[in-house]
Design brief:
With 180 residues, this protein is an alpha+beta fold. It has helices at residues 2-29, 154-179; strands at residues 46-50, 56-59, 64-73, 79-87, 93-97, 100-104, 109-117, 125-135, 138-148. It comes from Dehalococcoides mccartyi (strain VS).
């Protein structure tokens, strides 16, 4: 039994030293930079951002809506010939200003204007629009939701007409019963 207790103390001390060594080694590992070699030193990275305030918006069918985007080269090499497009619901139209970007330097940003036009026959609801920037098989995108609230002003006029008729009816009833 005495031998078991002695062996247990030795194993406990050794396991404590091993755990302390692992902990100390992991702490030191973060202090020294790794010696890993990267296979690719230059990389292309293109980002397309929809500026704040344009993530969820109302649109009226037949009226143009301007949205503002930002295109950024966050990579380490220059980018040429960027094409702009969009994934849209049927019959919707997007026009970019500028229509394409010929050159974007390292760290450079450029502002874009996208004019969105919903068709006159667009029904009420939410529509997802995806704006796309692409060059050499690399594609980035940003999206927004446009909400068509009312497709025509006809119902507004009908509501105003009914309100006027009701007010006129109340005035006539008040005058009729006020005489007696």
């Amino acid at each position: 039994m005495k031998k078991f207790i002695t062996n247990f103390k030795i194993y406990r001390t050794l396991s404590g030293l091993v755990c302390a060594g692992l902990l100390f080694g992991s702490m030191l590992g973060g202090l020294f930079p790794s010696a890993a070699v990267t296979a690719q030193t230059e990389k292309s990275s293109l980002s397309l951002y929809l500026l704040s305030g344009y993530y969820y918006m109302d649109i009226i069918p037949g009226e143009a809506k301007k949205l503002y985007l930002e295109l950024e080269n966050s990579g380490t090499q220059e980018i040429f010939d960027i094409t702009l497009s969009a994934d849209l619901p049927a019959n919707w139209v997007v026009e970019y200003n500028p229509a394409s970007v010929d050159y974007l330097g390292v760290g450079q940003r450029i502002s874009l204007e996208a004019v969105v036009l919903a068709p006159l026959d667009a029904s009420r609801g939410e529509y997802n629009l995806v704006f796309i920037a692409e060059y050499q098989q690399i594609r980035t995108f940003s999206n927004t939701i446009l909400v068509v609230r009312d497709t025509s002003g006809l119902w507004q006029w009908v509501g105003l007409g009914l309100g006027a008729v009701m007010i006129g009816g109340f005035v006539l009833l008040y005058r009729h019963f006020n005489r007696n």
